């Protein structure tokens, strides 16, 4: 039997009228009658008593109606669920998160969840050194990261340029110094979330390009990098808007002549066919 036959049967059984069922299902009455007859032939017993006075359910028809209501409703729900997944308004979206300070990006996720509550959001830790490979491996659908021109087959959405500043622990020897210049920082370790691309180091700390003797503290991820800075293990470059939200255990250094920025956006693979990802990208735009 076909689901359309059950739908037609449900409509006729509820209205006790082939005419009203035809109007309700937007199907010609002969087609309704033909499908009901085919269903009866398949079942091997009549579902309706047809007379000049109208249509009535047989005893078997009444039992069949009540027993199939749940089946029909389940099929309806399954179809709606599958359609929502295909359209991206339901399903699963896995997001790679590099650090807990990405609050501006969390706002976008919260807005998306409010608009599409049937999409299940899953967060996964993304580490700077392995995040691009993990994106290709399907560990997550999308992540927030610095734009890299060398990243193969990676697309970016909602890219923003973040101005950077140099931050240190409140107990750092340079914490209260005024009018610093980049060369004043060279004797101190510089912290960076470890990455595959050395060019990102010099994009973050352009004055280090000619100073290979300055030690780098390579943190496993951005949260560890932040902890290293707070513990006084070195200075760290970070977006100004992030640094301004830090607590009293850190401070922005007054470094004259330091100018650096990072383009940051949502990274994803254009080949990823997850409809929930497509819906999120549509939401971002």
TrEMBL record:
Residues 1-58 form the HTH lysR-type domain. Gene3D superfamilies: Periplasmic binding protein-like II, Winged helix-like DNA-binding domain superfamily/Winged helix DNA-binding domain. InterPro entries: LysR_HTH_N (IPR000847), LysR_subst-bd (IPR005119), WH-like_DNA-bd_sf (IPR036388), WH_DNA-bd_sf (IPR036390). One of its GO terms (molecular function) is DNA-binding transcription factor activity. The keyword Transcription regulation applies. Keywords: DNA-binding, Transcription, Transcription regulation. PROSITE patterns: HTH_LYSR. The keyword Transcription regulation applies. SUPFAM superfamilies: Periplasmic binding protein-like II, Winged helix' DNA-binding domain. One of its GO terms (cellular component) is protein-DNA complex. Belongs to the LysR transcriptional regulatory family. This is DNA-binding transcriptional regulator, LysR family. It comes from Denitrobacterium detoxificans.
